[in-house]
Amino acid sequence: MTEPVIHAPGIYFDLGEEAYHADPALGSSSIKAIAVDAYEFQFDRLYGEDKDTDALIFGSALHKRVLEGRAAFEEKFCQEFDKSSCKDALDTVADLKKWLDSYGQEYLSKYSKAELIKLVQRIDPNQAIAEVIKAKWEEQNSGKTPLKPKRWAQIEIAARWVQRDPLLSAVMQDGTFIAGAPEVSIFYEDRGVRLKARFDRFLTHAIVDLKSFAPIFPGEIEGTAIKTINRMRYDLQAADYLRAWRKAKALHEAGYVFGPEPYDGFLAECFARDDPKWIWIMIKSTGAPQPLVIDWQAKFAKEAAANQVEDAIDRYIELRGLHGDENEWPPMRPAMTIEDHDLPSYFGKN
To answer: Of the candidates 245, 269, 106, 90, which has an alpha carbon nearest to the alpha carbon of residue 179?
Structure first.
């Protein structure tokens, strides 16, 4: 288990993903969870959250490729072992024995598979052997997360298609952002609560947030993206990050900046405005990896989400005060009274 790391308030460039997540400050996922159901949030925090591993791996790989570049992506991920590379190689014990028998080798039944492989290599070091080919692949890709060929293709196609967007083509190269700074971390404190945010891509005029999503039902991507924002409450994340941006503005003025800016004056340029734009890049994770760029200008929705974020922090302070940070938060609800007018019109009908 990763040991907790406490970061001082400030803006952090080049802070590793593990170091960011090791800090127990409340991030946008926590704030969103508290806003939706504070009791579920605390239960997951104490006992572990159910997670979709494939979706998380795909999202992480997509972030690496589009936000940090091809080299960073290929340093952490690889294509899973391709069995077709062993098409003409010796594979089974029977294959090995048959090959050795053709070279006049006898009494082969007493040898293990590993010993048979050594015998083959002694006779012909260049003979292809499936187990040897796979072992070499494992050595070359040690520590990397393997992706299925389709997933690899989806990520590469998504990177190309995102760059074709007229709003983004000027700030991208080889399917990766070249403007601004990637994965900028913000840590701050408010009313005794430590909070954090991590901007996917921090541009001088905008925060860019990359999201992969799997539509529940088929349909035009515009409609399914809006439904996903509502279902996943990404509006709360946006509100929390925009709140962090305003806190970061004060941190910058106070000189709490760690790590090199992309260039001198970058942050001054970022904070020379009242608020940044919020840009989502939504990429479909099933089928064709279609991207959709969303300029989030929904004034009333943004205001409602911002109020919910404030309420979530208030709720956290209240429940932490009642039960503590390391204890369960038992829900205390009055009995629910249901009358006929509370029920849908079809209820109770045969």
So the answer is: 269
Q: What are phi and psi of 50, to 5 degrees?
A: -70, 130
Q: Which residues of the chain have pLDDT under 70?
A: 1-2, 52, 349-350
Q: Which residues of 22-38 are buried (b: 16+ CB within 10 A; e: fewer)?
A: ebebbbbebbbbbbeeb
| Measured CA angle at 169 (ends 165, 175), to 5 deg | 90
From its phi and psi, is residue 54 left (phi > 0), alpha (psi between -120 and 50) or beta? alpha
Per the CB < 8 A criterion, the answer to whether 23 and 111 are in contact is no
**What tokens were used for 94?**
């029977």
- DSSP, collapsed to helix, strand or coil, labels residue 142 as coil
Beta-sheet strand order (sheet of 277-284)? 257-258, 10-12, 181-190, 193-202, 206-213, 277-284, 291-295
From 3.90.320.10, 3.90.226.10, 2.60.40.10, 3.40.50.10330, which CATH number describes the 10-76+150-323 domain?
3.90.320.10
Residue length, the chain? Answer: 350
- List CB contacts of 86: < 8 A, sequence separation 6 or more: 128, 130, 133, 134
Taking only the tens place, the pLDDT of each residue in 223-267 is 999 999 999 999 999 999 999 999 999 999 999 999 999 999 999
**Domain residue spans of the chain:** 10-76+150-323, 79-145
For residue 28, give the nearest of 213, 197, 230, 202 by alpha carbon: 197
pLDDT for the residue numbered 230: 95
pLDDT of 97: 84
Q: Which helix (H) or strand (E) holds 39?
A: helix 28-47
* Cα-Cα-Cα-Cα dihedral sign, residues 224, 227, 232, 235: positive
Question: Tens digits of per-residue pLDDT, 176-210?
Answer: 999 999 999 999 999 999 999 999 999 999 999 99
Question: pTM here?
Answer: 0.82
Q: How close are the terminal C-alpha atoms of the chain, in Å?
A: 55
CA-to-CA distance for 138 and 332, rounded, in angstroms? 53
